[in-house]
Design a protein that fits this description.
Structural class: mainly alpha
Number of strands: 0
Strand content: under 5%
Radius of gyration: 12 Å
Shape: globular
Distance between the termini: 32 Å
Largest sheet: none
Length: 83
């Protein structure tokens, strides 16, 4: 989060938006609190995975993209574990 250059309030807002977008893309029925958690944790997961590939994101837009991608990965992983 600090590497992306955004504050905590912005991280919560952008994380919520990223979680909501990922929820819509993955057709997951999650609430607003879980959307925020998915977006923030998803951004951390995606930043780590993209870091392994040598790709880095910066700023709010990069955090949003990483959050959406990471949240989609988390939703897909949760679905795979439930089966």
């Amino acid at each position: 989060m600090e590497d992306a250059g955004i504050g905590w309030i912005a991280a919560i807002i952008v994380g919520g938006l990223a979680g909501w977008i990922a929820s819509a893309v993955m057709k997951a029925d999650t609430g607003i609190f879980l959307n925020i958690i998915l977006g923030i944790v998803g951004a951390a997961v995606a930043s780590f995975l993209f870091g392994l590939l040598g790709v880095s994101f910066g700023g709010v837009l990069g955090y949003l993209v990483a959050g959406v991608v990471g949240a989609c990965i988390l939703v897909g992983g949760a679905r795979a574990l439930r089966r």
